[in-house]
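Narrative of accomplishments. A recurring question from our advisory board has been how the design workflow behaves on a single, concrete structure rather than in aggregate. To address it, we present the structure tokens for one chain from the evaluation set, followed by the sequence designed for it. No filtering or post-editing was applied between the two.
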């Protein structure tokens, strides 16, 4: 099974969408194997968004992501990276498909409620930034036979 990293950003936490967002992933059949609320440090934020360093929006992005707690999670399931990305919708909520998380809860491209890994390499890197191995659970989801053939 594949794993991915998902984060409810500060605007999603502050606006009270954490439970609604987690519920969507659970209802889709994805298994939560790691979950925590944390205040991201400047150092962690700079590592997480390292590919944007030097871009004009980098400082604002770091200020925003460290401004309030986030909820970080690791999801597991068949093709979960593309599945989660599809559920999130386009980065710009105004361009996100109806019913996606960003279309439903997002308002602005800079306040789009959620982040998710875009590839297996990104997922592995982001999971390792936010979670230690002992924080990730290995268990059988009892409804798995009702989700997968």
């Amino acid at each position: 099974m594949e794993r991915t990293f998902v984060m409810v950003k500060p605007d999603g936490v502050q606006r009270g969408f954490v439970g609604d967002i987690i519920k969507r992933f659970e209802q889709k059949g994805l298994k939560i194997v790691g979950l925590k609320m944390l205040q991201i440090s400047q150092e962690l934020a700079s590592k997480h968004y390292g590919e944007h360093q030097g871009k004009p929006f980098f400082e604002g992005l770091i200020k925003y992501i460290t401004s309030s707690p986030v909820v970080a999670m690791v999801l597991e399931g068949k093709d979960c990276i593309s599945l989660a990305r599809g559920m999130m919708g386009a980065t710009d909520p105004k361009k996100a498909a109806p019913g996606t998380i960003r279309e439903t809860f997002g308002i602005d491209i800079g306040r789009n409620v959620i982040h998710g890994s875009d590839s297996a390499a990104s997922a592995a890197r982001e999971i390792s930034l936010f979670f230690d191995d002992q924080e990730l659970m290995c268990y059988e989801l009892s409804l798995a036979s009702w989700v997968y053939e």
